[in-house]
Amino acid sequence: MTSSPLLADTAPAHSETTAPGSELSLLRLLPLATVALFAGLGATALLARAGEVRLIGFLRAEQSIVYAPRSGRVEAVQARSGEAIQPRQALIQLADESLDREISVKSREVTSLQASLEQCRAKAEVEMSLQRKDVDDDLLRTRLEAAKFLRESYAAKLEHVTLRNLAKESASGRWLAASPDFLSQPERIFDSIPTEPVAVPQGMRFSIVMRQELALNLAEVNKASSEFCEHHIAELEKLRKDLPEMIRKAAGVDVAEAKLAQAAEQFEALNKQKAAMSVTSPGHGIVGSFSKHVADPVGVGEALVTVHDRERPFVEVDVPSREVIKLHVGQTLRLDFAGEDRTGRVAFICPQAHNRNGDADSWITVRVHPAGKLWPEVAIGSAIGVRMK
């Protein structure tokens, strides 16, 4: 009778026969596990992005429009679109033929007035030298006459005093030490003193009194003449001082200077208008689009070029009106700058919707300002990815 094998005896044999099959099953399950892992990760990512809306916005910048200061035509465009510019950098040169003609005419007028002024000044110099010579001669002559009258006045006063003393001595009956002919030659009164005193006759006493009065009158006349000369000298000195201004006015120098100053002021104003024809940048920025080109006519106050301020960028994106309820001012959004992630903050939500290209859907414009890390340097107008939940 055959006995059945024990369980202990058969188990090892069974294990040896199934080991290769188990290893093969594990190798087959490994790719499936990898696929399941990635599928799980993808599902996790999809779940994380569930409800996220992806939109395309465009990089903008605060802009300023440069206007024409006056009418004319575009003579030259001195900058290119997209070029970085500095403050006061030339953008467009305008030209105005009427202004150029005015400047040319005024320039010739200024030159002519300058020549006329120089001619008036030359005439004034010549007249000045002649008039000053006459005044100086008159001053010298008057000073000499004043000195002469003053000397004669002093001599007459001395004679008057001498004759007065002589009259007193003769009235007292005293002797007078004087020559008999001194009355006819009073200037020699001190040169004719005799060695012996002589008596003064009665007739001579009367002559002494008469000559005394005559000397007094002569002294007063000479004093008045000297004072008149001094007054005339003061007038001549004042005339000499005022002579340059008087001759300038008489020669027309003042009028010529006034005309030249007025013409020069007008010429400067025209040149300022010419300088204003050079349209410059209001500050740092990027040149946008030109609305005028070379030889185009331009009216005063007409827009010429747009300048973008790179220091104040923002992203402008159209959001479907049904999604805009998810946004609020101050909310942070994820932005994609050509593969570089950045963040922005909602700064403005337009209160009015609009349609695009006849689309039935309505859109609302949203402006996003920088937040967090600095945005990369990309061209104005570049497409920027916007992600919102």
Task: Give a brief outline of the structure.
The chain is of the alpha+beta class. It has helices at residues 7-48, 97-171, 202-251, 253-276; strands at residues 53-67, 72-77, 84-85, 90-95, 278-280, 285-290, 297-298, 303-320, 332-337, 340-349, 363-371, 383-388.
What does this structure look like?
By secondary structure, the protein is an alpha+beta fold. It has a domain at 101-265. It contains 4 helices and 12 strands. The chain has helices at 7-48, 97-171, 202-251, 253-276; strands spanning 53-67, 72-77, 84-85, 90-95, 278-280, 285-290, 297-298, 303-320, 332-337, 340-349, 363-371, 383-388. It has a 6-stranded antiparallel beta barrel with strand order 1-8-11-10-9-12. Strands 5-4-2-7 form a 4-stranded antiparallel sheet. A hairpin with a 2-residue loop joins strand 9 (332-337) and strand 10. The longest helix is centred in the middle third of the chain and has 75 residues, at 97-171.
Question: What is the secondary structure topology, with strand pairs?
Answer:
Layout: H1 7-48, E1 53-67, E2 72-77, E3 84-85, E4 90-95, H2 97-171, H3 202-251, H4 253-276, E5 278-280, E6 285-290, E7 297-298, E8 303-320, E9 332-337, E10 340-349, E11 363-371, E12 383-388
